[in-house]
Automatic annotation (TrEMBL):
PROSITE patterns hit by this protein: PH_DOMAIN
Name of the protein: Pleckstrin homology domain-containing protein 1
Gene3D superfamilies with a match to the protein in the record: Pleckstrin-homology domain (PH domain)/Phosphotyrosine-binding domain (PTB) (2.30.29.30)
Domain PH positions: 26-125
SUPFAM superfamilies reported in the protein's UniProt record: PH domain-like
């Protein structure tokens, strides 16, 4: 399986990974995060855009129709998003995990970290193949609870 870090790298792959998502207009969330590289574990500041179940990143914040993402993470492949200050020993750190790997990010403040965790968490739930589309979790509360759940007649 292709690494999530490289999901949108290479010629033509970025457009394919965008899968028709108009990331340049009305994102669910966007902002600066510092991310750890896949191979050389240096930290680089990137502009992130969350839209329609995909987390894109760019070198700068001026994103247009012709912008090419440096990478994309399909959130449907993610299992968890949570704080990671204790793992990295860095303030405002959080992690995004799949079955195969864990990616690390650093926000500019505690508030931004929590907002990214909440936004990505909601997107994971909305785009997960293992959760029915009727289930929506409240990630803004300290104790996430199901807000709406319609019984699936086929269960």
């Amino acid at each position: 399986m292709m690494s999530l870090w490289r999901a949108a790298m290479g010629s033509g792959a970025a457009e394919e990974a965008a899968d028709g998502v108009e990331f340049w207009v009305d994102p669910e969330r966007s902002g600066w995060l510092t991310k750890q590289g896949e191979y050389i574990k240096t930290w680089r500041r990137r502009w992130f855009v969350l839209k329609q179940g995909k987390l894109f990143w760019f070198k700068d914040s001026y994103v247009t129709r012709s912008s090419v993402p440096r990478g994309v993470i399909p959130v449907s492949t993610c299992l968890t998003v949570k704080g990671a200050e204790d793992v990295l020993n860095r303030q405002f750190a959080f992690e995004l995990s799949t079955r195969q790997e864990t990616m690390y990010f650093i926000a500019d403040s505690e508030k931004e970290k929590e907002e990214w965790i909440n936004s990505i968490g909601r997107s994971i739930v909305q785009h997960s193949r293992s959760v029915t589309h009727e289930e929506v979790l409240d990630y803004d509360s300290k104790n996430p609870t199901v807000l709406t759940s319609t019984p699936d007649p086929q269960r």
